[in-house]
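Q: I have 354 residues here and want to know how they pack in 3D. Can you give me a structure?
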Amino acid sequence: MKIIFDVAHLYYLPQYLSVYKILKKKVDCLFVVYRNKDLIQIIENEVKRLNLPHIFVDSEHESFEYYRGCDGNWIIFGNSFKYISKIPSHIKTALINHGAGVKSVGYLPGMNQMDVRFVDGTHHFKELAKAFPDKNQVLVGFSKMDPLINNSQEPLDFKAIGLDPNKQTLLYAPTFYPSSIERFPKNFPNDFKDYNILIKFHFFSYIKKKYKGQIKRINHWKQYDNVYAAGIDEYSILPFLKSADLLISDASSTLFEFAALNKPVVWCDFMKLRLFYRGPFRFRHLNRMDKKLFQYRDIAVHVKTYNELRSEVDRQIEHPALFEKKRLKYTDQLLGPIDGKSSIRVAEYLLNNL
């Protein structure tokens, strides 16, 4: 008996690992890991560090060729898979979505072609059941959160990374586009010098050349004494979520992951738009923005300009319960039961249906 994890991107691993730790005690597991030419050494080092049973592939087609002839019982995907309809019928397929179920992309047909989809939140589950009544969905919660809830996730070692353990800590975790990064001034850390600042950019900011200006910004900010910026090899945001007292972000699903810990969030509405998204073309930006995400915008306080940020951060730190009712409500709807047992529910389903 064998269960296979399809690792198209390194940042899928946080969704998989807590499930794998349960399964490996009872069945053989294998990670099919996609190489990225710019990240080969990082990927190989991480697979070795985690001691994962694995094979490497160079493309989605190569992974499919492996799946055609493999002896797996289940293949678990973190996203849609181009060749899903061609996988042999004796192999079952499952989806553990790599991100929280708050974005419209999760409702695309390609995301719902597996034999089973593990769903995080109650509202998400009901909507998927309406949209795809003939598909098999199982409500389990958000497995990525389990290490944070059951305290198996270690926080960052502030002394080791040069921060003050006695200061309160802000996490700035923006998305890649459209992003607030370019709207933050170069002296941003100095404006918050009485806080620790953790910076965790989206994985695409690190690997896509079009966002190299964002990396210049992070390289400048990390020179400040009160800043620790994640490197490209620190693909998991979990230690940063664990260590921060407040999150600053923009239109990112990280907002909902942090809010699930019942800690305050400040949502930045000021973002840098490309020229053809501004002025009379602003409708293109509105069309691009995820309508699902913005249904839940009252989960956090919003700031319209950078100049409003400091006072709002101070207010949320001083009164962390201001948005607590909304956080708890939307967490149940979008991420499901936050009890540290989501991975157990996934593993039990897979084992009971081998």
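Q: Anything worth noting?
A: The chain has a mean pLDDT of 88. The first helix runs from residue 13 to 23.
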